[in-house]
Structures are given as structure tokens and as C-alpha cells.
Write a structure and sequence with these properties.
By secondary structure, this protein is of the alpha/beta class. The chain is globular and about 45 Å long. The mean pLDDT is 96.
Length: 187
């Protein structure tokens, strides 16, 4: 099983990457393959089409997804929102029913608003939303600060474990429970 984690930050190795790495490490400890794809910087540099095409392939191969963003103006980065808009247009059908989680990072505030924006994509696509023992957020100005947020580290580690549990539960249930069928929305 595999989970792809998308980093919506303009910084490839910043706070959001550090947060996603905590989730990825917890997944790997549970026997789940995890890959972090840095999309924010590439989208900022104008590579939206190639990024979405690469991500669409990764989404097809993955059993779960995680989208992470720093807080910019009490919202996800514009790069992540653009990426998610385009990814849903290109590969929304492949995202349906896949467990998904959101992660936000910030210095002070805006995390829950950021999580809310990201989670709405999941709700639109009938994706089980994976939670933790608190909001999937972590605080810090630098990657080193992020790792000092003990509650945030615990929350994101638990998020990885919860994602692994849900993926394993779905896999175990496939022989006895039929996945729902997508029904086109009434317009």
C-alpha cells in the first residue's frame, strides 16, 4: 500500500515538508509506503501542467493521499489550491473513495481555516477524511521550530498511524464489503 503526500509550500524543505515527513515516517513504521511530492515551488515556477500530470499518475497508484500547506493569509497556499483545482479536474475520478488527510503549518494562526479549505475537496469526492487526536496542524517559524511543537509532532504521528489503520481496514474488508458506487450529481 502507498500514500502520496503533496507539499503545497514554495519551500521544498521547509515547515510543511517537515510536517509531512512526520506523517510519512509514521506510515512507514506501519508498513505503508510513503512518498512526498513537492508541488508548491514547481507550481510557483509555472510548471502546473507537468506537476498535475505527474501527480495524476501517482494518485492512480496510491491507496491514500495527504495534502499539506503552510498558512498564507489564513488559507492554504495559492499554489496548493491551484494544484488541487487542476488535479481534481484531471484525476478527480481516481481520488474518489480514497482516504485523505490535510496538514497545515503556521507560525501562529490560520490552521483550521486552511484545513477546512483542503478538506472540502475530499468531501466533494466521497473521500474518507483521516483525522488524528487534534487538528492536523503544527506550529513553527522554521523546520527546527516545528519539531519542537510536541503536541503537533504527536498529532501528525498519530495521523500517519490512523491513515495506516484505515488503509489496512479497507484492504481487509474488500473481501466482504462492496465499495460504494459513484453517482453523478444532480444538476
Amino acid at each position: 500500500m502507498k500514500v502520496v503526500l503533496f507539499n503545497g509550500s514554495r519551500k521544498n524543505d521547509g515547515c510543511t515538508f517537515t510536517a509531512l515527513k512526520l506523517v510519512a515516517e509514521a506510515l512507514k513504521a506501519e508498513g505503508i509506503e510513503a512518498e512526498i511530492m513537492n508541488v508548491g515551488r514547481r507550481i510557483f515556477n509555472g510548471e502546473i501542467e507537468s506537476v498535475v500530470n505527474e501527480a495524476a499518475v501517482k494518485v492512480q497508484e496510491a491507496e491514500g493521499v495527504v495534502f499539506g500547506s503552510p498558512v498564507y493569509w489564513a488559507s492554504p497556499s495559492g499554489e496548493l489550491v491551484m494544484f488541487m483545482d487542476r488535479l481534481w479536474a484531471a484525476a478527480g475520478g481516481d481520488l474518489r473513495f480514497k482516504p485523505a488527510a490535510s496538514v497545515s503549518t503556521c507560525r501562529r494562526a490560520g490552521n483550521t481555516a486552511t484545513l477546512d479549505v483542503i478538506n472540502k475537496y475530499f468531501a466533494y469526492s466521497a473521500m474518507p477524511i483521516v483525522t488524528s487526536c487534534y487538528w492536523n496542524e503544527i506550529h513553527g517559524k522554521t523546520p527546527e521550530d516545528v519539531l519542537k511543537d510536541e503536541e503537533g509532532v504527536q498529532t501528525l504521528t498519530m495521523l500517519g498511524k490512523n491513515m495506516a489503520w484505515l488503509l489496512k481496514s479497507i484492504e481487509a474488508g474488500k473481501s466482504s464489503v462492496t465499495q460504494p458506487v459513484w453517482v453523478d450529481k444532480v444538476r
